[in-house]
Write a structure and sequence with these properties.
- Four copies of one chain form a homotetramer.
- With about 350 residues, chain A is of the alpha/beta class.
- Helices cover about 40% and strands about 15% of the residues of chain A.
- Chain A contains 14 helices and eleven strands.
- In chain A, strands 1-7-6-5-4-2-3 form a seven-stranded mixed sheet, sandwiched between helices. In chain A, strands 8-9-11-10 form a four-stranded antiparallel sheet.
- In chain A, strand 8 and strand 9 form a beta hairpin.
- In chain A, helix 8 crosses helix 12.
- The interface between A and D is medium-sized, with 18 and 18 residues.
């Protein structure tokens, strides 16, 4: 019953198999190999567009390198106060951007709206005394498991572009959001105005593989220098590329996400029916946020369930986060619900 | 006939197998897992000492994070002008240290001596106008394939410590050097005075796994914050740890290095006998540096041999670098020598 | 009627005279001169303690250099959301600290309390995923003109020290606060637990002179390297030191602050009696924050009064900031009140 | 007999007088005042061109901010190994550029030539493994007191531009070089291809005033943000601007430089005639570099002469640097020569 995080689980067998498959013989290093090219071709197909694609090994690196490319050292990045870049990356974006300012905004469901940015903007329009508005960064699916619609994304992109900013999307759970929406990857990104994407694969089946995608390849600028300078250019790159290549083959990424989403839905539906329990957010991806009675929380933990308290207990209830991965056993869900019900 | 680099080859089958072996089920993420602990235990045994061990995925990250831990932003790092940190890492150490100064020194066989540092030191003893002498960094085996003896290392360590500095060793090819010397890992490092080590595994069989080792664990300071802040804390860490674990099991690391060294020796011996060819450096690890006649170079390239020119052609000869990996086919060596001889 | 800022006014004649006085002949450069030593001696007397003193030319440099000395690149600095370091310095602290996180807190009168920091702290106690709590920074007098009592400072200092943090005070208007409290400089700083102080002189009579003061000289560490490396070591330092020397002579700093505070009091008292106007904060230093009817604001501006709107107009009133300097003419105050009354 | 540095002397009386003159009354802060505008107008006239001008207080800040504007974090800056940015600024350029690489080159008279850069360039044309060639930086007059001719500058500028780089000039002693050449300021800068200039005034009469000049104003980019973010935007800017304004008025800058150069010439001519002494460099600005017999050096120091040894004593002679300022007494020169002659 491990619902602590989707990164608590291992790797997809098809991705592991790909590693062995590409290992034989010599190949060009540092991303000049054929498999890295194949990944770029797959991405172009998925996004229906020529895009610039750069594999990296962590989401923090993907986000930080993307932001450093879009934002000058004296820039401001508007993000949600609960976003991963704001609170879970040890101020990595500040390091990679050389001191940019992350402006923490608020909004229900961990979502930003044009209004939330507009409200903060005047404080950054006073010349050099404040950082220069440069980027809006959103997470899809969000840190509360909710999903922006293409229209919501487009509204933010328009606001960003109208104000001389760019739109970055942290897609650590990109596939989960896409499966939920049922739209195309293009619709959820560049057609809605997204400029740069951190495309996640690790949480949904890879060992350590993400990619930064720029929809206008020129916007990538000197990205490759930044990646190398931060120690994120892998010498035997084929092993990172192979993970992405397998992930994008045969719809593996969508299949895995669909399974995780469905199981999360089952878990959420089950919780909604528990006496004293309430869902805190609609279940739109692979995470369930729910208020559970403290006695239920204690009983679950005693039975071995692993999950995070998202907020301290209050009034006899605790807000918990339950994350389901592509490979979480169905039995973990049923066992969790049974234990909760007792 | 690929002698371009040891990172042109794939991964050791035993290491690939370990990835599959550790993938099942849930585990703590971010390095709190059992396999990461096992790596630490293996390192303690190898070094005969309790050490602080931090897995990362690239040598550039290992070197830069180690240096940033040892050197303040206003510090000076003395290194050889041909060292990897000086010329092959896109000034990554300058980024991670927040602007420290790398002082490029000279010395035969890409080696530093206490005298080479002593000659440069007065320029850095003028108070705040120059960077503060903080670290001496050496590469073992060096970028020219030569190997420091424990005595040479101890002399540098003593000089560093006498002058308020610390000694860092870039061990991208640590195993190759160790096998050549035939001494213990302890003798080649902390017993000789090394403070921090970048322990390489990628070039000798891993997919993407290195480790930073501090021999006085307290010296690691806030290393873990720096690793996270630079995007180098892998969420599914067990997959990096598993590579190191397999690498250090059953003497795999030493066996692989011994094979590469021996094959390089065969290649070097063969070249030394070629008419018009000369070894530029003694073959002490898995690289051969030789002056070859330009016609021979052209003939080899035409036959498909891959290797780097280390210096531009001069007087009809070119200095070339030939690197042999743990898995370079023996036939590549014999074929190279045959082609060269024609 | 210029109430825009205390930096809108020029320099004190006694300070200007000092510049000419010290200009003759040759002297050691980079702070090795006698006048710089005299400043250190005066500071030791004022603070009743041996302190480390470093003159710089701007408050932003003073704050940023102090914070970079106290806080590692991966540290968190807790400050008020309206503080100068948070919103008026273009993220300079983030640059000098190499990417530390400024955590914006709230509290009435632009003041922090131990509780406000305690509420935020749990989010930073999750290991390397969040920045490491390192510094609490307060402003004395605050950006809303209010003044912390020594007891309030001591409570924050105790909380900081109990949690492994240090307390920094931005004293851009240090003299104004001190005159208000009527206590000793020691009582307001190190006796209450302040670790480092940005001591302001520019707003209260100097041309461009501030000083960073560490109450435990060892805590200054490599401050001098940081100052040089950021271009803030003035070659003809005697001209900065001379400003501070004259400022601290004959109680000039206290006399100037007392005059500004008294005039601000007169202005505040006058405003409190105006129909439709309300003071937003008690007048405790040299700034007046008041809600004025929009018609009154318009009339004042038309008559040439200069001041900033602190918040956009709402419900027919605007929150304005009026700053009085050591040399603002009394007539400016009386004329302002007369115009407001009409 | 103080020949230690031109920054050992005070300020020009006309510049001191200007400070008092501009101090009265209120003025816009942060460079929005009339005097700052006047400086820009004077610069445009001197350079016969609309230029972007930004006052700062130190040469290190001027150089570092100019370089950070011209060079990305992953860029390489080619400079002479004896240049101020290379060895006298505590790696400040590395800090402001966020980790760029300063490549130390050699050349007689502390001068670079296109060939010296061309020889180093191939090492930086290997993609992301090395820093990206971005800037050539020269010093005028050089650290050895020599002066580039406009033709020499043009050759470097052409080489820079042909290779995608820009040319920066550190003009800490700009006036001294200009007076020596007798050409126009335009001829010595943008007409020869200089892109950005650190224009020095402090060494030649100001208290603390330099200016960064971009000859194509658009190239300044976000300079103002960088200046603010590094704490170098002075709030009462009129006091820095007034120094530059007076410096550029009535040919004060040229008169001062001419006097210093002439006196240095007298000193150099006198030394050339001393038995056992030799000039190490032609005297082209306000510095004299000479090999003096060690006994003479000892005798001069005993008599109170202050100057720096530029190299350690060798073969009975020491290379010394003697710098003459705009206000060094003539008597100091005659006394020095008399003492040397005894």
């Amino acid at each position: 019953m491990n619902f602590a995080s989707d990164n608590a689980y291992g790797a997809d067998p098809q991705i592991l198999a790909a590693l062995t498959r590409v290992s034989d013989g010599a190949a060009a290093s540092y991303g000049e190999d054929e498999i890295t090219k194949s990944v770029a071709a797959r991405m172009a197909k998925i996004f229906e567009k020529n895009v610039a694609v750069f594999p990296v090994v962590t989401g923090t690196a993907a986000n930080s390198l993307a932001l450093a490319t879009l934002c000058p050292p004296h820039g401001a990045i508007f993000c949600h106060g609960e976003s991963h870049i704001a609170v879970d990356e040890c101020a990595a974006p500040e390091f990679f951007t050389h001191g940019a300012k992350l402006v923490h905004l608020h909004g229900g469901g961990a979502k930003l709206s044009p209004q939330s940015v507009a409200d903060a903007l005047p404080g950054f329009m006073r010349g050099v005394h404040s950082a220069k508005p440069s980027v809006i960064s959103i997470t899809q699916a969000t840190e509360l498991g909710t999903v922006y619609t293409p229209d919501e994304i487009a509204a933010l992109a328009n606001f960003a572009h109208d104000n001389g900013m760019r739109l970055h999307m942290d897609g650590a759970r990109f596939a989960n959001a896409l499966v939920h929406l049922g739209c195309s990857a293009a619709d959820m990104t560049w057609k809605a105005g997204v400029d740069a994407l951190s495309f996640g694969a690790t949480k949904n089946g890879a060992l350590c593989a993400e990619a930064v995608v720029f929809f206008a390849p020129k916007m990538a600028g000197d990205f490759e220098y930044r990646r190398k300078k931060s120690g994120h250019l892998i010498s035997k790159m084929r092993f990172i590329a192979a993970q992405l290549d397998a992930y994008l083959s045969d719809d593996l990424w969508l299949t895995n996400a669909a399974r995780a989403n469905a199981l999360a839905k089952t878990l959420g539906d089950g919780i909604a029916k528990l006496a004293g329990a309430t869902l805190a957010q609609p279940v739109q991806s692979n995470a369930v946020f729910a208020y559970l009675p403290d006695a239920m929380v204690a009983r679950l933990r005693k039975a071995g369930a692993q999950f995070y308290d998202w907020e301290p207990a209050r009034n006899g209830h605790t807000l918990v986060r339950l994350v389901v991965s592509f490979v979480t056993p169905e039995r973990a869900v049923s066992q969790f619900l049974e234990t909760a019900r007792q």
